[in-house]
Amino acid sequence: MNQTVISSLLPVILLIALGLVVGKRGWIRDTSVKDLANLVFLVLSPALLFHAMSTVKVEQLSLWPVASYFLGAGVIFGGTLLVMGFDRTSVVTAIANTYSNTAMIGIPLVGLAYGPAGMVTLLTLVSLHSLVLLTLATVAVELALAREQAASGQGTRRHIVAVVGRAVRNAVIHPVPIPIIVGLLWAQTGWQMPEVIDKPIQWLGQAFGPLALVMVGVTLAHTRVGTHFKGALLLAVVKNLLHPVLVFGIGRLLGLSGLPLTVMVVAAALPMGANVFLFSQRYKAAEDLITAAVAVSTGIGIATLSLIMLWMG
């Protein structure tokens, strides 16, 4: 196996495995997972994202690689609705097929494999990831619910403008895009961050990767796949393999190559993100299947990521 793939994936595997052991032995109980997740997402993640973008100039950013990711996701999202029909379950399945774990797994992995330049490309995607995909899914599922209610004679739901507005607000006012935007704005000022402030932010950001990966393992230890394995495996194959292949093809059509294309393909190959599970819970659609799919997608993600990274060279 390529040395870069080994050196990038092995630390990820070891930390997730450590989390599995910790979870299985009960050192971190199921009731404590939410508190640790809050620490990761509300404290460590913003510090890392701000620090990573605080030295990036706007001219370094490119939206073409990000466009290839979202176009690939759009093809799979629309295809899922065509195959399954338009209802809550199909929308939830569609977001499961397209929403990557760009934070907890993506940031540590891309940082190890592709360095600061790769991180700039990934964080450009991260800043828009939830905004685009969760807004799309929210609008679609609200339309599906309105259709269900109209068919059952229960009246109409909120106006679609209100639905879109709420979805956009929730996606923007979030601990992921805000520190990216603030860090980018800070970089444009040219000001130097005082070391007494910069150093603690840097330390917090450095703690994100290891703790986030351990948390992935702990979450897997408390997840039961049960009778949904076959359905979960199908969703995982679509997410982990079909999505990156589509992104690669679309990226080539857009004239992309080199590191930007590689990072987007690897981002598309990442396992399903935790927001997929939360989305299914919120709209009470296919909760058990999606829970199993997130676990299976993460479980086979090491193998599928290895294949994709080797393929991209």
UniProtKB/TrEMBL annotation:
**Keywords for the protein's UniProt record, in alphabetical order:** Cell membrane, Membrane, Transmembrane, Transmembrane helix, Transport
Q: Name one GO biological process term.
A: transmembrane transport
Indicate how the chain sits in the lipid bilayer.
Multi-pass membrane protein
What InterPro entries does this protein's entry cite?
Mem_transp_PIN-like, Na+/solute_symporter_sf
Its GO CC terms are: plasma membrane
What does the record list as coiled-coil region(s)?
none
Question: Can you tell me where the transmembrane regions are?
Answer: 6-23, 35-54, 66-86, 98-117, 123-146, 167-189, 201-221, 233-253, 259-278, 290-312
Gene3D superfamilies (alphabetical): 1.20.1530.20
Q: Which domain of life is it from?
A: Bacteria
Protein family according to the UniProt entry: Belongs to the auxin efflux carrier (TC 2.A.69) family.
Q: What is this protein called?
A: Transporter
Q: What is the lineage of its organism?
A: Bacteria, Pseudomonadati, Pseudomonadota, Betaproteobacteria, Burkholderiales
